[in-house]
Amino acid sequence: MDNQYAIEMLGITKVFPGIIANDDITLQLKKGEIHALLGENGAGKSTLMSVLFGLYQPEKGVIKKDGREVKIQNPNDANDLGIGMVHQHFKLVECFSVLDNIILGVEPVKGGFLQKKEARERILELSGKYGLKVDPDALIEDITVGMQQRTEILKMLYRDNEILIFDEPTAVLTPQEIDELMQIMRNLSAEGKSILFISHKLNEIMAVADRCTVLRKGKYIGTVNVKETTKEELSRMMVGRDVEFAVHKEDRTPGDVILHVDGLTVASKLHKNNAVRNVSFDVHAGEIVCIAGIDGNGQTELVYGLTGLEPLKAGSVTLKGKDITHASIRERSISGMSHIPEDRHKHGLVLDYSLEDNMILQRYFEPEFTSRGGTLRRSNIRSYANRLIEQYDVRSGQGAITKARSMSGGNQQKAIIARELDKKPDLLIAVQPTRGLDVGAIEYIHKQLVTQRDEGRAVLLVSLELDEVMTVPDRILVMYEGEIVGELDPRTTSVEELGLYMSGAAGKGAASDSAAAGPDHTKEQEEVLHE
Asked: In terms of CATH architecture, what is 254-336+425-531?
């Protein structure tokens, strides 16, 4: 009899020091279905998928493929069984090209020579077929995070994998790329591939998944048919309580200018054109300004220029009236700037440090944490870290002494947010602050951003999430090809109008008018632009 399940994980238990990551979990993936795996940060979703992919060995439990029990000792075993995985934090070699990463481990060789021409043709064919546009010759370190993810997906397709695991695949994508990825997943499923899709985003699960399995704190809560459930019901299963989806904030009058940016220009590492071209704007005390745009339009380089991670080619940056254009990163931090970075592994944490040491990375030299003799005050550091861990609900197996590397992505993000907000900055630069967080944590972070604003701080938010762009800020600045092309008021603009600016279809001249003119003008403008 033909087994209807492509994969069955029965009674899986996985234990790490101080934590049962998976506690007797059963998951059954039907052939050709898109099956979502939903749960809070640290619920055990990535661990369960890492067991299936052979990265971890479970203490208990059985894995079956097509009804037959299998042993998956490592990722090579998984690949041999047709199981592929796109990890939340990509497993790519930064100094290799896209092409080299895709063929790594399955290189086409004839007579001892690498046959890159055939591989290139196959990759271009796959990328055309599934709408995964990539430049095979670009180096991984030079391409956007969205492009890196496409490279990971092509790696699976190049290997003819039948079971595809996507771990938080949309956490790093723009709204347009998310729509494309959903369509890609539907196409793959229609071709008979079976997809496991880890996500926190309820809208996406409702849009693309056939069934959904919910985990909470390492335990199995249940499996539901997506067509027969609601977002509210799923969030209740996931968090164990009702979640507030709307962002509540009072109208505020902004205060003094905290951040003044004038003629900022930043070079591009990818091409001869500058990544940021002559950008000027202000952020006032008591307001949230959001930089919106499709990924790769200069937002990353703009933030690098503001925070000191990249030198400026031209322009100046002033913080509270003080010129910090050439200041070091530490000087900017001491002057009142906090930065929640886009890449939490590269710029946010030292992964092999403990959680408590990561919490004091920018403050270890303060008298509270270091004695006059230069010795770290360990008990002070521990109690400080414990306070932040409790306040921000950072979950980890061994508390303050947990290695940052061993924590879930969402809890790593919470640790960075705790550290940056606790500095009580004058200016908070938050880049994708809710990336990879579950609905409960997103609700909490949004409240924190609004609290920062209400306490008179300036917040510069950089986001690719349309919901976040439309609900959190007081003003929206749209970036396109390295320039600010529009300033919009989220109360009077529409998602469609925002999309036109993000895609470059709306001209620069209309920018300030549309923000002031209200919804009627917006509608007319849309009609003109659509013509």
From this structure: 3-Layer(aba) Sandwich (3.40)
Which tokens sit at 154? 């092509």
pLDDT tens digit sequence for 393-438: 898 878 899 999 988 878 899 999 999 999 999 999 999 998 777 7
- pLDDT tens-digit profile of 347-401? 999 999 999 999 999 999 999 999 988 899 999 999 999 999 999 889 887 889 9
Helix 116-130 and helix 175-190: axis angle, to 10°? 100
Cβ-contact 158, 120 below 8 angstroms: no
Q: Give the tokens for residue 7.
A: 């994969």
What span, in angstroms and rounded, lies between the C-alpha atoms of 360 and 103? 41
The predicted structure's pLDDT at residue 171: 66
> What's the number of CA atoms in the CB half-sphere (13 Å) around residue 79?
13
For every residue of 95-150, DSSP letters joined together read TSBHHHHHHTTS--EETTEE-HHHHHHHHHHHHHHHT----TTSBGGGS-HHHHHH
What CA–CA distance (Å, rounded) separates 507 from 527?
14
Cα within 13 Å of Cα(417), Cβ side:
27
**CB-based contacts of 242: which residues, under 8 Å, 6+ apart?**
232, 235, 236
Bridging pattern class, strands 219-225 and 5-16: unpaired
What one-letter code names the amino acid at 418?
Answer: A
Same topology, domains 5-239 and 254-336+425-531? Answer is: yes
Higher pLDDT pick, 528 / 511: 511
DSSP 175: H
Q: Which of 1, 73, 82, 15 is nearest to 44 (CA)?
A: 15
| Domain range annotation of the chain | 5-239, 254-336+425-531, 343-424
Please state, in angstroms and rounded to a whole number, the distance separating the CA atoms of residues 459 and 456.
9
Q: Which CATH architecture has domain 5-239?
A: 3-Layer(aba) Sandwich (3.40)
pTM metric for this prediction? 0.69
The number of beta carbons lying within 10 Å of the beta carbon of residue 307 is 20
Please name the residues in contact with 129: beta carbons below 8 A apart, sequence gap of 6 or more: none
- The length of the chain, given as a count of residues: 531
Q: 101: which residues sit within 8 A by CB, 6+ positions away?
A: 92, 93, 140, 151, 155
Q: What is the DSSP letter of 507?
A: -
Give every CB contact of residue 105 below 8 A, 6+ residues apart in sequence. none
